[in-house]
From TrEMBL:
InterPro entries assigned to the protein according to its UniProt record, in alphabetical order: Histone-fold (IPR009072)
Compositional bias segments (type: Acidic residues): 88-111
Location in or out of the cell: Nucleus
Subunit-structure text: Heterodimer with POLE3; binds to DNA. Component of the CHRAC ISWI chromatin remodeling complex at least composed of SMARCA5/SNF2H, BAZ1A/ACF1, CHRAC1 and POLE3; the complex preferentially binds DNA through the CHRAC1-POLE3 heterodimer and possesses ATP-dependent nucleosome-remodeling activity. Within the complex, the heterodimer with POLE3 interacts with SMARCA5/SNF2H; the interaction is direct and enhances nucleosome sliding activity by the SMARCA5/SNF2H and BAZ1A/ACF1 interaction. Within the complex, the heterodimer with POLE3 interacts with BAZ1A/ACF1; the interactions are direct.
Name the record gives this protein: Chromatin accessibility complex protein 1
Function: Forms a complex with DNA polymerase epsilon subunit POLE3 and binds naked DNA, which is then incorporated into chromatin, aided by the nucleosome remodeling activity of ISWI/SNF2H and ACF1. Does not enhance nucleosome sliding activity of the ACF-5 ISWI chromatin remodeling complex.
Length: 111
């Protein structure tokens, strides 16, 4: 038997990887086009791709890479709301900690 040179094997694997990538992108685009608004507009849009990534379980891993587009003003409002909710949540945690300390003191006094 003759062994194939390592360069030939590596380039062969690289070629297969490129083919798989191309097939994956083609499948994603076709699926997004068929299940999105692509047929209506006769075009594939970013929103079709992001919708597919969000809704289809097969493409769920792409949700972080293809997020839905939002306006900057909406994003800033979301950040403000999260900040306010975070502060309220921190206050609640502090109250719970104080209650736990009070209960521990009451138990020590009762002993």
């Amino acid at each position: 038997r003759k062994l194939l040179p390592a360069i030939y094997v590596n380039s062969s694997f690289d070629y297969c990887g490129l083919i798989f990538q191309e097939l994956f992108v083609q499948y994603l685009a076709t699926y997004s086009y068929k299940h999105g608004r692509g047929k209506e507009k006769n075009a594939l849009t970013y929103s079709d791709l992001s919708h597919t990534a969000e809704e289809c379980e097969t493409f769920q891993f792409l949700a972080d890479i293809l997020p839905k587009k939002i306006l900057a003003s909406k994003y800033l409002k979301m950040l403000e709301k999260e900040k306010r909710d975070g502060e309220v949540g921190e206050d609640d945690e502090e109250d719970e900690e104080e209650e736990d300390e009070d209960e521990a003191v009451d138990e020590d006094v009762g002993s």
